[in-house]
Design a protein that fits this description.
The complex is a heterotrimer of chains A (about 90), B (about 375) and C (about 350).
Chain A: E1 5-13, E2 21-26, E3 29-34, E4 46-50, E5 53-57, H1 60-91
Antiparallel strand pairs in A: 1-2, 1-4, 2-3, 4-5
Chain B: H1 10-23, E1 28-32, H2 35-44, E2 54-58, H3 63-66, H4 69-79, E3 84-88, H5 102-107, E4 111-114, H6 118-127, E5 132-139, H7 144-156, E6 162-169, H8 171-180, E7 188-192, H9 193-199, H10 204-211, E8 215-218, H11 222-237, E9 243-245, H12 257-266, E10 267-274, E11 278-287, H13 296-299, H14 315-319, H15 343-346, H16 351-369
Parallel strand pairs in B: 1-2, 1-7, 3-4, 3-5, 5-6, 7-8, 8-9
Antiparallel strand pairs in B: 6-11, 10-11
Chain C: H1 29-43, H2 46-49, E1 63-71, E2 77-78, E3 81-82, H3 83-96, E4 100-112, H4 117-134, E5 137-146, E6 154-164, E7 180-183, H5 189-196, H6 215-223, E8 228-233, H7 238-250, E9 252-257, H8 265-274, E10 287-291, H9 296-304, E11 313-321, E12 325-329, E13 335-337
Parallel strand pairs in C: 4-5, 9-12
Antiparallel strand pairs in C: 1-6, 2-3, 4-6, 7-10, 7-11, 8-10, 9-11, 12-13
Classes of the chains: A alpha+beta (about 90), B alpha/beta (about 375), C alpha+beta (about 350).
């Protein structure tokens, strides 16, 4: 459960942390969300929003790690293939 | 959509799947705790990409599914009262109680309104001072920060006409209850990524150690789930039982501190009945004494209602991962999304509904070839 | 809520009654005034002007097509349209789904007492303009007024008659294994445009309803000799409903590719936000076409040349004669059932 989606903070209003609101852009659709729980968030940051509340700031470095891991897997595969080919030609 | 669509890449999904195939040498049973993860698994067909040795069990991760009949009946009773504006998330509107559901109450003249955020209910209370506005607060820890803020703001505004029917549930006690059951076949968990976004994952290491199960905090897109499964299988194959975080772009170890603080202030841990499972101690949240004035159960005098679950429905066994939906005699016949027996068929998150929508033909094909 | 600006060239013809009254449906002077100054003036044509109990007209020799639909949309005005234009386009499109040329429409109005006269006039002007665009005449109608609280502002029923001037048999039972499944454009705009202004959900977007007539691209397909087996406009229940209905009527299994179905980024985002599936969301200016396999590419190219179908795409095939089933292959390559949506599409948090 917990349908929460990432969006970009376009504008922020409200000085009081509890009532701080952001206009969040979800792929072209804009909806307001409370930023009460993400006081560190600034305009331009991405947040994960659930029922009108931003629950976390998207860590962009971590976001890429899934793809970096896949890339590493691919490189290891290629390396393995190379080694196998070498071994095969060495033993033939 | 950035940070969403790229996690649905088909080629990359296949890469993860190939790696999982490569390292799996034994049968493993993994439970995904969250209904949102179940939804993604079935919608994208993620389990079809996995080796046959891996069994995914759908856990009790759907707050709609686990809301006991008697809480729904309380909601229906309140919603039918004149002078009440009953607000709810869309999910709960079609869930059947003992005899009816919120949509039917609406059809009969009840003022039942679907809202997007609990703050909308507070606004409604401000705009309608002569009405009693009630919000149906269901959800896991993910939703608690939102409902807590609604109550907190209502208190600050000194609203006399706002209350909440609270039925929040907590995940770690549910995992503990599952693991301590002698029938439990689960060897590892994909923990709910958005629950952990709020609560962090500091509660999990003791569970992982006690029951020797890997617990991987996982996201909701296909690449997240496949990555989470890969990390889980890597642990299982090497006999490790640690807590890892796949969904690090959203989840921090300590979770969201301001959210946890407000939850602690507004709510207190209480025992909670889980539909089909029974009462799990310390597994729910109710309003703290300081906010008792906002408790709809007290306000409308429905706190003492007791209701039994229908005998035909095996939602409990499904939720515990002990049976699959198509193993229920009522599945697809007496019980369908149009006339559901239990919430696992009503909620689009429910394991039975997901199976019905997305898998009926596989089951039928299998039955034909038997 | 963004609605088209009502310009001064459409002045309100009944100034002394700012709201519709019960008497406006009573059969007397006030009703006569309403009929003459509002409906009669806006929809004027020789057949309607005869002011007879039934419209009289001749039709070209051949097969006729007839359809009826009632429109109850809330809110009455939404981004990209209103209940009036929707009522005209919807009925004209239903006729187009038989490949028929639309000729005449009837319009029945059920008005809730208290509806602002200006609202009614705006809707009527919108219908006049839509009818002109579609080349149809509104030749007969009816008006009733119901007590306040007994109707949702305004309900409209339109019935349309068209003539079939081709020799194809465009019906579900013409669908055969191997046929190509084509959608005429990107999906989900209408449903999400309505959601965007729905109370309790409201969000900002530039999504507008796709309500529009689709007669022209259909005509082009037929004229080009495309072997069109079946057409279905995608309204409530979206693509999923239409495909399931046709699969059931034709007794076939249909398979589509999720990635091939065009959905605009903002519609996709709105669906993700509310937990809805674009394949279940309502459309108003989109149709699905089943054509012979060899005509698929040509059909898509023809559709693309028309404004209302520039995003047409081939999305799947009719697999075989079998127990009715619609499957969709996901982005990651696995298949699942695309079921008929059950009931109203409700946003979810779970």
């Amino acid at each position: 459960m917990c349908l929460a989606i990432p969006g970009k903070v376009e504008t922020i209003t409200g000085a009081d942390p509890i009532t701080r609101m952001g206009r969040i852009n979800f792929g072209g659709v804009i909806k307001e969300a409370s930023l009460a729980y993400v006081p560190e968030v600034q305009v331009g940051d991405y947040v994960i929003v659930h029922v009108g509340f931003a629950l976390s700031k998207v860590d962009e470095a971590e976001a890429h790690k899934v793809f970096e891991y896949l890339k590493l897997m691919e490189e290891l595969d290629e390396l393995k293939d190379e080694v196998e080919t070498k071994n095969n030609s060495a033993s033939s | 959509m950035k940070f969403l669509d790229e996690y649905r890449d088909g080629d990359l999904a296949q890469k993860f799947a190939r790696e999982i195939h490569r390292i799996t040498t034994k049968p493993w049973t993994i439970m995904e705790v969250c209904g949102g993860q179940t939804h993604a698994i079935v919608k994208f067909g993620i389990d079809e990409l996995l080796p046959k040795q891996i069994t995914l069990i759908h856990g009790p991760g759907c707050p709609v599914c686990v809301t006991p009949l008697e809480v729904i009946d309380k909601a229906l009773e309140i919603a039918a009262k004149p002078g009440v504006i009953f607000t709810s998330f869309g999910d709960m509107l079609r869930v059947p109680g003992s005899t009816t559901d919120l949509l039917s109450v609406k059809a009969k003249g009840g003022d039942v309104r679907m809202i997007y955020s609990p703050l909308d209910a507070v606004k409604l209370a401000e705009q309608n001072p002569t009405k009693e506005v009630v919000f149906f607060g269901v959800g896991f820890e993910t939703t608690a920060p939102a409902t807590a803020m609604a109550v907190f703001q209502a208190a600050q505004k000194e609203l006399k006409n706002f209350s909440m029917l609270v039925s929040h549930v907590l995940v770690p006690p549910a995992i503990e209850a599952l693991m301590s059951s002698p029938n439990c076949r689960v060897q590892a968990f994909l923990a709910a990524g958005h629950v952990c976004t709020v609560m962090g994952y500091e509660e999990y290491p003791p569970l992982a150690a006690k029951y020797h199960v890997p617990i991987v905090v996982t996201g909701f897109e296909p690449l997240d789930i496949l990555h989470g499964i890969l990390m889980t299988v890597q642990q299982l194959e090497s006999r490790r039982a640690e807590v890892e975080n796949q969904y690090a772009r959203s989840v921090r170890r300590e979770g969201n501190q301001p959210a946890q603080e407000l939850i602690k202030k507004v709510f207190q841990v209480v025992p909670r009945k889980w539909r089909g499972v029974g009462e799990i101690p310390q597994s729910g949240m109710g309003l703290a004494e300081g906010y008792a004035a906002f408790d709809a159960e007290r306000k409308f005098g429905v706190a003492d209602r007791r209701v039994d679950e229908p005998a035909d429905c095996i939602a409990g066994l499904i939720l515990q991962g002990l049976k699959k939906p198509h193993e229920c005699p009522a599945f697809g016949g007496k019980c369908t999304p149009e006339h559901p027996l239990g919430a696992t068929m009503v909620s689009s998150e429910g394991a039975c509904a997901a199976y019905y929508r997305y898998r009926r033909h596989t089951v039928a094909d299998t039955a034909l070839t038997k | 809520m963004s609605a088209p600006e009502f310009n001064a060239s459409c002045p309100l013809p009944i100034q002394q009654y700012p709201h519709v009254l019960m008497a406006h449906g009573g059969g007397g002077k006030l009703m006569h005034q309403l009929l003459e100054n509002v409906f009669g003036q806006a929809f004027s044509n020789p057949i309607l002007d005869a002011r007879h109990d039934s419209a009289q007209f001749t039709v070209p020799v051949g097969k006729l097509a007839m359809t009826t639909d009632s429109y109850v949309v809330r809110p009455i005005f939404f981004p990209g349209g209103d209940i009036g234009s929707m009522a005209i386009h919807g009925t004209v499109n239903d006729l187009a789904m038989s490949g028929a040329r639309p000729l005449y429409l009837s319009c029945g109005f059920i008005i809730e007492e208290g509806l602002p006269m200006e609202t009614l006039w705006r809707v009527v002007c919108s219908m006049r303009d839509a009818a002109q665009r579609c080349g149809v005449q509104i030749v007969t109608g009816d008006t009733k007024v119901v007590d306040k609280g007994k109707g949702d502002g305004l309900y409209i029923n339109t019935t349309g008659i068209g003539v079939i001037e081709h020799s194809l048999n465009i019906v579900p039972t013409s669908v055969q294994p191997g046929d190509a499944v084509i959608v005429s454009g990107d999906l989900g705009r209408h449903g999400m445009a309505i959601m965007a202004v729905r109370e309790g959900l409201q969000f900002e977007s530039t999504i507008e309803s796709d309500s529009a007539p689709v007669r022209e691209p259909v005509r082009a397909l037929i004229k080009a000799g495309i072997e069109v087996r079946c057409l279905r406009d995608l309204t409530r229940g979206g693509l999923a409903s239409a495909l399931n209905e046709i699969a059931a009527a034709a007794g076939v299994k249909i398979a589509i590719e999720h990635q091939a179905v065009p959905v605009r980024e903002d519609v996709h985002a709105a669906c993700e936000m509310l937990g809805l599936d674009p394949l279940h969301v309502a459309n108003e200016g989109r149709f699905v076409a089943f054509v012979a396999a060899q005509d698929a590419e040509r059909a898509v190219n023809i559709l693309k040349r028309h404004a209302v179908s520039t995003n047409a795409a081939l999305i799947g095939r009719v697999v075989e004669q079998a127990a009715p089933l619609v499957t969709v292959r996901s982005a990651i390559g696995a298949s699942r059932i695309l079921d008929m949506p059950s009931g109203e599409q409700l946003p979810r948090i779970c």
